[in-house]
Specification:
There is one protein chain. With 109 residues, this protein is α+β, with helices and mostly antiparallel strands. The chain is built from three helices and six strands, in the order ααββαββββ.
């Protein structure tokens, strides 16, 4: 299994486990979009609100298990442990990168 991540994603997951919303949102482009639980969050302010909401709701930790990259797309299987039924679960994350910025993140199937 390949768990080598681009630096921007390794930093994102480290910040996620620290629940550091400022560091978590730093790699996102100003016009980035996150899709999670059937909702879209566009722009840094909306993404930061989503991050704060999910941290508060689930108090979760993440561990990348496997990753693959094809051009700007990086797929990461992530073990997520937190305050939710069935914890831990494995969830696919699909990132679209532009250099050192995240343009898009899709969480889940």
């Amino acid at each position: 299994m390949n768990t080598d991540l681009p630096r921007v994603l390794a930093d994102y997951f480290t910040a996620t486990n620290a629940h550091d919303v400022s560091a978590m949102s730093a790699p996102f482009a100003e016009d980035a979009t996150v899709h999670d639980e059937g909702r879209a969050h566009s722009g840094i302010a909306a993404i930061r609100a989503w991050m704060s909401e999910t941290i508060e709701k689930f108090d979760y930790q993440v561990e990348p298990i496997e990753s693959s990259q094809s051009g700007p797309k990086v797929r990461v299987r992530v073990s997520v442990r937190g305050k939710f039924p069935g914890s831990p679960v494995t969830i696919p994350y699909a990132f679209t990168l532009a250099g050192e910025k995240i343009l898009r993140l899709e969480v889940g199937p």
